[in-house]
Every structure is written in structure tokens, then in C-alpha cells.
Amino acid sequence: MKNVGGPKTIAFVILLGFVLMTDSCSKSSDSTSSLSPSVTTNVSAESTSQSLTSEAADISNSVTSNTGNGVLSGSRMEKIVIPGATAASWDPRLVCATVTISPAAGSTKDNPQGTIIIYYDSTATCKDAIGVQRKGTINIAYSGQRFAIASTRVLTFQDYSRNGVKITGTYTISNRTDSTASAPLQYLHVLANGKLTFVNGKSITRNHIYTFVWTRGNTPGGDSFAIKAGSTATGSTEDGTSYSVNVSSDLTYTLPCLLQKIFIPVTGNKTLELGTSTYSINYGTGTCDNVITVSLGSGPAQSITLTSDGN
Question: Can you say whether the dihedral through the CA atoms of 42, 211, 227, 116 is positive or negative?
Fold first, then answer.
């Protein structure tokens, strides 16, 4: 068992993790809003469940992107242990983690197979640079080169939590396009039996099927990302209210806004059905801000400034 040393270039996908980490974690700070407290809480609950599960998925993207197919195939050594100090040079969210890569027998560079364990010590008090504390384990079963068509990564969680919010479920990421193609890269994100349990003991459930697209720009800073129209989610909120989400027009993120620490979509729409009511959520027309508008049916739109507390 050996350690891998030396920093690597941070993959662009890491920025994506911070996008997803804060997508719609919302709570109204507009005192004039006519949305009831229970509605704003439930909007926040749905958004938090999406953001935290997606962040865990993107941490796996970060590891597989930076280790490379040679390491994942086992061509260099049988098992690799990567300390947090090294992993943090790829992704600051890994500073408190130990990453262990175990290629499977018969794994090759062209078709790597194996498992990755991302372990955050449950007894430690370590936090990342923005004060987030993670504990427990993210297990990843990988198959195929990350950018190869039909490659997959399947995530499961063992006593894993983020700032005390425990996450369970199975998260599968499948590549649907060849990296040599000129078309945007497409990934299918499927969360099954997702559940978040908060420090107050209440919980949210979630299942989602997202088509995620990465469009590479022709100029620096020209890349964009989108959760495609038709992507869906279902579950129940903390108070037991059932919900369903449908992305009605692409939820698009841009690099310039990411660099300004605006981590929510800058355009796009989705509908959120809470019980018997349907809310329309609009992310704007491209301005780098943290404001969305929410409306019930044909009623007036109310502004909500998004935060990350999920309450």
C-alpha cells in the first residue's frame, strides 16, 4: 500500500461541484413575500436534498478526473492511498479525507474497473476552507474510462454526513457521449432511495433522474453547464408533504457567474408540485445573482434570495 504524492491540476468539473452544492438551497429573505413559511421551508427542503446529494456525486467526479485512467486501472500499483493534503490540491473538499483506490482484477487502462473509498474520519473535527465538516464514507464502484461512452460510477454512503446532515441512497452516474465527439458531453444522474436526515431528526426523501450537459466553449470562460429540460425528481419533505419536480427549460450555469461565487442557475425554469399545489420557479435571464422568483399558478411572482441553510 503506497501513497501518491504531487499536486495535479484541478479539473474543471470541480467548479461544477460548487454549482450543484448550492443549487436552490433557498429561504426567503424577502419580508414582503406572500409565500407562507411552510412553502418557503418546503422549497428549501427540496432544494437542499438536490444540492447535497449532487455535491457528493461531484466529489466522486473530482477523484476520478484527477487520478486518471492509469491509476484507476491499477497499471502502476495494486492499491493506492491518497492523503487529504494531496487530494486537496485537486479539490478543497477533500482536505479532510483519505482516498483509497482499489482496481479490480483484470482492470485495464482502456477499461478500468474497481472501487474508491473516500473516508472522512468520524471522530475528527477537520473542516474544509469554507467551514464544511464531512464525516463518514462515500463508496464508489467505477467501470470504464470516465469520459468513455457507457462508463458508470455508482455511489453509496456509509454513515456519511455533511455539517451533521446524514445522506443515504444510491447515486449512479452514466456517461452518454464519447469525449471525442464535438457535441456537448451528456451524463445521466440517477438517485434512488435518497434520504437526508437533519440534526433536528426530521428527514427528506428524494429520487431524481437528471440529464446533465457540459458544453465546452471556444474561448476561455466559455464553458457552460445545464440540467436539461425533462429532468425530474420526486420525494417527500420534512413535514411529509409529497413533491415532484420537472425542469421545464434548461437550468443553465456559466463560468463567469461561478467565478463570482454565484452558484445557482442563471437561466431556466422548473415546476415544483407540493401536495396539491404547483409552483413555478424562475432563475432569471442571465444576471449573476442569488435571486429566484416563485409563483403559485397564475398568481404574482415572489422573490426569494437563496441561502444554503435548507430551513
Answer: positive
**In terms of DSSP H, where are the helices of the chain?**
13-21, 37-73, 84-87, 255-259
Query: Under 8 Å CB-to-CB from 261, ≥6 apart: which residues?
Result: none
Of residues 76 and 151, the one with the higher pLDDT is 151
Q: Nearest CA to 53 among 235, 257, 307?
A: 235
44-58, 131-145, 195-209: least confidently modelled range: 44-58
Phi and psi at 92, nearest 5°, equal -60, -15
- What are the φ and ψ backbone dihedral angles of 172, each rounded to 5 degrees? -115, 130
Give which of 91, 95, 19, 88 is closest to 55, Cα–Cα: 19
210 pLDDT more than 90:
yes
User: Which backbone phi and psi does 123 adopt, to 5 degrees?
Assistant: -100, -5
* Nearest C-alpha neighbor of 45 from the set 231, 207, 235: 235
Beta strands in the chain (DSSP E): 2-3, 80-82, 97-103, 113-120, 134-143, 152-162, 165-175, 185-197, 203-215, 224-227, 232-236, 242-254, 267-274, 277-285, 291-296, 302-305
- Which residues, including other chains, have CB under 8 Å from residue 141's CB and lie 6 or more apart? 114, 115, 153, 154
∠ Cα 138 140 145 (to 5°): 145
> If we measure between CA atoms, which residue out of 52, 63, 60, 100 comes closest to residue 80?
100
Cα–Cα distance measured from residue 167 to residue 134, given in angstroms and rounded to the nearest whole number: 11
pLDDT tens column, 83-92: 999 999 988 8
pTM of the model: 0.83
What is the pLDDT confidence band of residue 69, given thresholds at 50, 70 and 90?
confident
**Grid cell for residue 15:** 467548479
> 22, 308 in Cβ contact below 8 A?
yes
